[in-house]
Structures are given as structure tokens and as C-alpha cells.
Amino acid sequence: MRARISSIAGYVPPRVLTNADLEKMVDTSDEWIMQRVGIRERHVVDAGVATSDLAKEASLSAIQKAGLTPADIDFILVATTTPDMLFPSTACVLQAKIGATRAWGYDLVAACSGFTYALTTASQIVSAGGSRHALVVGADVMSSITDYTDRTTCVLFGDGAGAVVVEPSDDDLIGILDFENYMDGRGGPALCMPAGGSRRPATHETVERGLHYVKQEGQAVFKFAVRNMEEVCRRILERNRLTAEQVDLFVPHQASSRIILAAAEKLGLPRKKVIINIDRFGNTTAGTIPLALNEAVEEGRLTRGNLVLLASVGAGFTVGGVLLRWA
Ligand code: ACO
What we know:
By secondary structure, the chain is an alpha/beta fold. It has 2 domains: about 5-170, 3-Layer(aba) Sandwich (Peroxisomal Thiolase, Chain A, domain 1); about 175-275 and about 285-325, Peroxisomal Thiolase, Chain A, domain 1, CATH 3.40.47. Helix content is about 35%, strand content about 25%. The chain has 11 helices and 13 strands. It has helices at about 20-25, 30-35, 50-65, 90-100, 115-125, 150-155, 205-210, 220-240, 255-265, 280, 290-300; strands at about 5-10, 15-20, 40-45, 75-80, 105-110, 135-140, 160-170, 175-185, 190, 215, 250, 305-315, 320-325. The strands form 4 sheets. Strands 1-7-6-4-5 form a 5-stranded mixed beta sheet, sandwiched between helices. Strands 8-13-12-11 form a 4-stranded mixed beta sheet, sandwiched between helices. The longest helix is centred in the last third of the chain and has 22 residues, at about 220-240. The relative contact order is 0.19. Bound molecules: acetyl coenzyme *A. Acetyl coenzyme *A (ACO) binds near residues 152, 216, 221, 255 and 315.
């Protein structure tokens, strides 16, 4: 049995942080940020707002669009790197918030590949008959782990969430066709939050040294991302005997417009088939792909049967690709 995405929704918090705002906080410029990553503004939460709050808004909207109620959801998978707390899982928090009383579920950590990994996992469970109405969420409050005195990282991230309902497909040609996921764990130190886990629990020293913030070797991440965004797409297209021309829409993880355009160019995908909305949202980690896909749907850029390619590269390093025919 094939699984399909039956509805999609996105949510970002109302507060906007522009490049002009960041110019007042660190030594940066709108020109530098636009040239390097293509971000004009990003949305950030107010104090006290957590990942489950953003996930709730996106989830309720996706459930309603699918013609369901929260009680119909039987499985919840939340991809996030910024859970409300270490435990219980954000999936548990979300289940209670939306009243999905019949659902079991858990969180999945794959950083920027969170949504592609979660969609892959949920589609396998639905295909195997283990769920009829799965809720898959990609949500992050990156502002909670961003050091707003570090210009090399604070310009990159934003907060946001996207949610999809995954159900069995009534047509074997429609739905999630294939996926390609892989990792290279040797890349871990290039992008991480060093403290706050079991190796370095929170102490005054870890807080003073800013070890609860995102740390990144930008160039190492950039090189890996460009190479592997292309590689994962090539692998999945080749295995399915498809060419880039046959792809109707490419929805990549939004980390940098340079990374996206470099990968698209190498694949031979024309700009008009590539969804880029990083200019308005920044890198929302697990939120970017469902937010971008949702915008494409709202803009009427997808019709039933369209071939869609999702691709992500993230901390880990994690790499993910999903090929689907839009339902
Ligand atoms: N404003 C102004 N100058 C800056 C800023 C800033 N915000 N940040 C860094 N600089 C300076 C540096 O200090 C450096 O100055 P120096 O030459 O005087 O030392 C100069 O700009 C160049 O720094 P680099 O780090 O070499 O800049 P680079 O061209 O590599 O761009 C960037 C940095 C944008 C982070 C790039 O490496 C990148 O896009 N990396 C991928 C990062 C990414 O997307 N991570 C997100 C998560 S992972 C993922 O989703 C794939």
C-alpha cells in the first residue's frame, strides 16, 4: 500500500526579525546576508513560546484541511531539534494540546533533515498498515538556541512549523514513491549544540561559555551541503529512471539560496521549478520543507500527479530525499 500526503499547513510566529534589526545587534549588513544566504527577514517567537505551540497551529490546520478531527489521528511524529524540553517528547505535548487522544508517537532528531526523515518513517508505517491517519510535523524554535551576539550564526535561523497528514493512497501511482536517506556522522562537530546533553550537562560554566547555542563551521557545512543536496537527488532520480526534466517541483531544505541554486543548477533544474522562500523565513530547520511545500500548494503550483522532489542536508550530517506524486 502506498502512502500519500493528504493535507499540509504551515505556521510561523507573528514577530519579524529583519536584517535591519540584526544590523543593530551585531556587526553585519543586509547586503552581506542577502549575498551569502539570501535571507531578508525571519520570524521569531516571543518569550515563553515553544516548538509545540507552533506545531499545534500547523497541525490543527492540516488536520482540518484533511477533513479530520484530532481524534482521528493515530500516530504523531514530530521532527525537531528544539523540543519543548528533553522529555517528555514534543509529540506527547502536542498530543495533549490538540486532543489527539488516540495517537501514539515520538520525536525524531535529524536537524534540517528532520522532515524528510519523518515523512519517510511515517510513510513506511502507513504503507505497512500501522497507521491510517498519521500527523507528521517539522517544527523548530531555532531562536531558543541561537546566540544573538554571534554574527556568523544569528543571521541564519528563524522559527516555524509545518505539518502534513499522511494516509493510505487510493491510487498506487499517487503518493510517496521513494526515498533516499543517508548520514555521515563524522560531520557532527561541524554543526552542533555542544552542551545540555548527557556528555556535558548544563553547568554555570557551560552557560557562561555559550555552549547551549548552535556552533557551526560554516564553510565545511556549505561544501557538504552543496555536494550532497545534488548527490541525494541524483541517486533517487537515477534509481527511478527519471530525469531532472521530469520533476515538476523541487522543494529543498532552505538553509541558503546559494546552496539551493548551486544544487539546482548542477541537476539541470530551471529556477521556475525550484521553491525558495528563505528570504522571508530564514532557516527554520525541520520546518523549512513543509513551509515551502505549503506555500507552493497555496500558490496553486501543484496539481494531482505532479512529480515533486524534496531534499535536505542537515547537522549530523544527515541527508534526505523524498520523491512523490502529488495527491
Ligand atoms: N555579517 C558580516 N560578516 C560576517 C558575518 C555576518 N553575519 N558572518 C561572518 N562574517 C564574516 C566572517 O567573520 C569573515 O570575516 P573575516 O574574513 O574578516 O574573517 C567573513 O565574513 C567570511 O566568513 P566565512 O565564514 O568564510 O563566510 P562564508 O562565505 O563561508 O559564509 C556562511 C558563511 C553563510 C555561514 C556559509 O558558510 C554557509 O552558508 N554555510 C552553510 C551554513 C548553513 O546553511 N547552515 C545551516 C544549517 S545546515 C544546513 O541546513 C545545511
